[in-house]
Write a structure and sequence with these properties.
Layout lengths: L1 H5 L1 H13 L8 H25 L7 H28 L6 H14 L5 E7 L4 H12 L6 E7 L4 H10 L2 E3 L7 H16 L4 E4 L5 E2 L3 H5 L8 E5 L3 E2 L4 H5 L11 H13 L10 E4 H6 L10 H11 L3 E4 L5 E3 L5 H17 L15 H34 L8 H22 L8 H23 L18 E2 L1 H26 L9 H21 L1 E2 L9 E11 L2 E10 L3 E5 L2 H6 L4 E6 L3 E11 L2 E6 L5 H10 L14 H10 L3
Parallel strand pairs: 1-2, 1-4, 2-3, 6-9, 7-10
Antiparallel strand pairs: 4-8, 5-10, 6-8, 11-12, 13-14, 13-16, 14-15, 15-18, 16-17, 17-18
């Protein structure tokens, strides 16, 4: 207890810093580096105590073995944390350079040709249509769109012919996505041979100014690739199932908005598979898109760096796509990423290869694989560790609760403060951890299997655009979490009852394991809630427009405000008196950038009118306006607007 009281002044100091940090920008490098150093020192303090004081004695083999394993996992995670701290030491904002390049290119018109690759496997036309139309509408004078179809669909070939696009397929599927793009690389070289290649996943739609913002970086002959962030116009499974679309950003925002600009400061920003532009000559120099792993993107980055090039990151919203919408697809995607990271350890340009990578590049490459090995396994082990104590009498951590808090809390508060502040609230304990626990039981075995057996792994495409009109339950996740929840509850209650009867455990502090068990119960309860997947009935995303329009009805042209719109309809604000007259009427709405569109009023009242567009509406023009314009999805702002999400927004201070 004295140790716990002694740490209170330090904790109070850290909490004071938490209150002041919102007034300081994360790009203030003096404060940023000071907090990094403080976090590093406090973390070292914790691990020194953890290693020297908390390991079980060797004369208790089970306790020692499990305790040592858990500590190794902690140290592996510490390595990833320290590499994050090192990465955060730098930061680069490339937007001013993009402004300058775009201004110069519009002035002198000196722009290189671009081949736009859209690799596709099994996506339906409803998904592909947006990407193809968006790519065709790029505000750029010299580009060719190539649809690379790896399932040889005649209907897609005919669609591309109608739109005047290049369609390309191949006899087999060797090399999966990378092999598909290499086929495009070979054929396009013979026909168009553009010096730059833009890659878009089949569900990602570019903003019209994408190439204008990116191509200027290739004036530097060292630059081989420019990556842009991934944004999404649909809620992911956590946002949707927990009704947090209004309050919580998607879990990839930390990587794209915080980590990638920091990596760029070290000239090692990662390619992420879509929404990037690469120099053809550089890709050809390294032998094409890598097929040695099932994640060609990060390996492409390091092969280019190994060849003497640099990669760049432009942190601007220049494209949007579909996030995985079910837990199953989310786990499949994460498993693929983890396996690919492990496979990358054994290639020539990996961290242990005889290559031209600098030491910092090797460390960052190694950290990526270490992250996937350690975090899912640590999460899984952490769920079972209290059960070892309650049921087996195995104490993997020998410390009193107060003593543990004395050493752990300062490090935890400092690191949490740093990560929350530096990410602008894009990462948060519990919610961020939850996505890792959901995947742990699948990802951990997959990555260790990839490490130990090194067998070839199939490339599994993540399904997108999935709809359902009823609640669905992921029974695998539900039963796993439910069984652990029940077992932990029974073990905890039974043992606490035994303590009342005067029974004492052999080593370890029951209070510490009680807190640990309660935390696990909270996590498991949330995982079970997440396994109940809410219906996704909306076939088309709605976007906020909030721009002027006009309604034509009975010969009059009335001013209106277009509030939001989808491909099939819109919501319009007009004078309340007029709204009551328009019920069930046929009207024409004039929309900026599209022109007149026939529509039918499906609901009217209170100054708002809901419109359903007629069969003759210009679908292609509407798609281009919505998906390539500077609009945000309504689903990620006001999908629910419930008190539940409002509480989360207030508690966590999400922006």
């Amino acid at each position: 207890m004295n140790d716990l009281l002694a740490t209170l002044p330090g904790v109070a100091l850290l909490l004071g810093a938490v209150l002041l940090l919102p007034l300081i920008r994360p790009t203030n490098m003096l404060v940023r580096r000071g907090l990094i150093l403080a976090t590093f020192v406090l973390s070292l303090r914790y691990f020194w105590w953890r290693i020297s004081e908390t390991l079980p004695p060797m004369d208790q083999p089970a306790d020692f073995a499990f305790g040592l394993l858990f500590m190794v996992l902690e140290l592996m995670l510490a390595f990833s944390t320290y590499m994050c701290l090192l990465t955060f030491w730098r930061h680069r904002d490339n937007s001013p350079a993009a402004d300058e390049y775009e201004h110069e290119s519009r002035r002198d018109g000196n722009l290189p040709a671009v081949d736009v690759f859209i690799p596709t496997y099994n996506e339906p036309w409803e998904v592909l249509e947006r990407t193809i139309l968006g790519a065709s509408a790029l505000d750029y004078p010299h580009f060719t769109v190539w649809v690379l179809d790896d399932t040889r669909r005649d209907w897609l070939r005919d669609k591309c012919a109608q739109l005047g696009l290049r369609y390309l397929t191949r006899p087999g599927n060797e090399g999966a996505k990378a092999g598909n793009m290499n086929n495009g690389l070979h054929v396009s070289k013979q026909e168009t041979n553009a010096p730059l290649i833009m890659v878009l996943d089949a569900d990602f739609v570019p903003r019209r100014n994408f190439l204008r913002r990116v191509v200027g970086f290739f004036r530097d002959p060292r630059v081989a690739l420019v990556q842009t962030p991934q944004f999404f116009f649909n809620p992911n499974m956590l946002q949707h199932n927990f009704m947090l679309s209004e309050s919580w950003v998607d879990e990839q925002r930390f990587f794209f908005d915080t980590l990638q600009p920091a990596k760029d400061g070290w000239d090692v920003s990662y390619c992420c598979g879509t929404s990037f532009v690469a120099r053809r000559a550089a890709v050809e120099e390294i032998g094409g898109y890598p097929t040695e792993t099932i994640t060609e993107d990060i390996l492409l980055s390091f092969k280019l760096i190994d060849a003497g090039y640099v990669t760049r990151y432009l942190n601007e919203k220049l494209s949007s796509g579909l996030a995985p919408e079910t837990i199953g697809e989310y786990i499949k995607q994460r498993s693929r990423w983890g396996i690919g990271a492990i496979q990358s350890l054994f290639v020539h340009c990996g961290p242990f290869g005889r290559n031209n990578l600098d030491f910092i590049h090797r460390l960052l490459f190694l950290e990526t694989a270490n992250y996937w090995l350690s975090l899912p396994t640590f999460c899984l082990f952490g769920l079972f560790a209290p059960l070892l104590y309650w049921i087996g009498g195995i104490a993997i951590l020998r410390a009193e609760a107060a003593e543990y808090a004395y050493h752990f809390l300062p490090a935890f508060i400092a690191s949490t403060t740093l990560f929350v502040w530096i990410s602008g609230g894009r990462i948060m304990p519990l919610l961020t951890d939850l996505t890792e626990f959901v995947c742990a039981s699948r990802v951990a075995p997959a990555v260790w299997k990839a490490l130990l057996f090194r067998k070839a792994q199939p490339f599994r495409v993540t399904a997108k655009g999935m709809l359902s009109d009823r609640v669905q339950i992921n029974w695998t996740v539900m039963l796993e979490a439910g069984a652990l929840f029940v077992l932990t509850t029974i073990a905890l209650l039974s043992y606490r009852t035994a303590l009342v009867d005067g029974l004492q455990p052999d080593g370890g502090d029951p209070t510490l394991y009680t807190f640990w068990s309660c935390w696990n119960l909270l996590i498991l309860a949330l995982v079970m809630l997440l396994a109940v997947e809410r219906p996704r009935r909306r076939r088309e995303e709605r976007f906020d427009l909030n721009e002027p329009a006009h309604l034509l009805w009975r010969g009059s042209r009335e001013p209106a405000r277009l509030l939001d719109m989808s491909v099939s309809g819109a919501r319009v604000e007009i004078a309340p008196a007029l709204a009551t007259q328009l019920r069930d009427a046929d009207v024409i709405i004039e929309i900026t950038g599209i022109g007149p569109v026939t529509a039918h009023v499906t609901n009217a009242g209170g100054g708002n009118v809901n419109l359903r567009f007629g069969a003759g509406a210009p679908r292609a023009a509407i798609i281009v306006k919505l998906y390539t314009g500077d609009y945000d999805s309504v689903a990620l702002r006001t999908e629910i607007g419930s008190a539940f999400s409002g509480i989360f927004r207030w508690v966590f201070g999400m922006r």
